[in-house]
Amino acid sequence: MTPIADETINEVDFCAKIASASEPIFDQLGGRCPFVEVRVEGLGSTAGKMKRKDLRFYDADKEIILTGEVKLPGAPS
Q1: Alpha carbon distance, N-terminus to C-terminus of the chain
Q2: How far is it, in rounded angstroms, from Cα 42 to Cα 37?
Q3: How many percent of the chain have pLDDT more than 70?
Q4: Residue 43's pLDDT band (boundaries 50, 70, 90)?
Q5: Interval 16-41: pLDDT, tens
Q6: In terms of Cα–Cα distance, which of 57, 52, 47 is closest to 69?
Q7: DSSP conformation letters of 47-63
Q8: Alpha-carbon span 60 to 67, nearest angstrom
Q9: C-alpha angle with apex 22: 31 to 3, nearest 5 degrees?
């Protein structure tokens, strides 16, 4: 995918693109990768505070094995 100079993208759209592109890679690796599925959004608890988790990576047992909060350059924290 070639970026367009005037294109703007928000964090949720970025996460959706990552999720969409990731699953075919996981399928191609055929079990050599612990990840099976990626979902966007959800809530999780960190240090007693509810925080949004932008990306959630799941294993074959549908257990969450990795979450990530995405901040694009220039976005307010």
Answers
A1: 27
A2: 14
A3: 71
A4: low
A5: 899 999 989 998 998 788 999 999 87
A6: 52
A7: TTEEEE-SEEEE-TTS-
A8: 16
A9: 155
Number of residues in the chain: 77
Give pTM, 2 decimals: 0.70
State the amino acid at position 19 in one-letter form. A
Which residue do the tokens 């990795």 mark?
66
Single-letter amino acid code for the residue at 21: A
Where exactly are the structural domains of the chain?
11-68
Looking at residue 42, the DSSP 8-state letter turns out to be -
Question: Quick one: pLDDT at residue 64?
Answer: 93
Could you tell me the sign of the dihedral formed by the alpha carbons of 3, 4, 5, 8, in that order?
Answer: negative
Q: Alpha carbon of 45 to those of 8, 25, 62: distances in Å?
A: 30, 29, 19
